[in-house]
Design a protein that fits this description.
Layout: E1 6-10, H1 17-27, E2 30-32, E3 35-37, E4 51-53, H2 56-64, E5 68-73, E6 79-83, H3 84-93, E7 96-100, H4 103-112, E8 117-122, H5 126-134, H6 141-154, E9 163-166, H7 172-189
Parallel strand pairs: 1-7, 1-8, 2-7, 3-4, 8-9
Antiparallel strand pairs: 3-6, 5-6
Length: 194
Amino acid sequence: MDIKNIFIISGPSGAGEDSIINELKKRMNVRTIVTTTTRDMRSGESEGKPYYFVSIKKFKNLIKEDGFVEWAQQYNGQYYGVTKQEFADIVAEGKIGLWKIEYKGVQTAKKKFPHIIAILIMAESLDVLEKRIRNRSKVTEEYVQERMKYTKEWLKHTDVYDYHVINRQNKLFEAVEEVENIIKKHIENNEKPC
């Protein structure tokens, strides 16, 4: 499977990976890799935004047919995964694929694709990260604490990433430029991580 134009963008809640991805879409020929899920579509969502929605039966059939690059069943019983077809479509379109996954997904991806480039996006401190989470609309204290606990666990696994990019407060474009340069370097040189 051709993965040289696939890059992992990953970071805990509040790190700004979505903002960076959105800016990269304006600057480069990129497309986000869309995950397939069995969970119900929510208000404001549509097919492909932010997921492809399928039945559990169809998802399990894709598993049997070896149709996934990776998949997992989450704590809520729902299935999530990226299809091989999604990767093939990005390659066929001649685009750069941005794969947004959390650290457990990065660990799995690195086992399957040791040369895939994984970029960790992080705020300059846990305090800044927490403030960003709190600034979201309608978050509970329980949600904030849950996100921060998960972030602290996440930070124990930063060694799985090839690059660490700090998205400093009010300096989004510096982080975007850094990620863009990493991607360009690997596209142009087709380098493997050190």
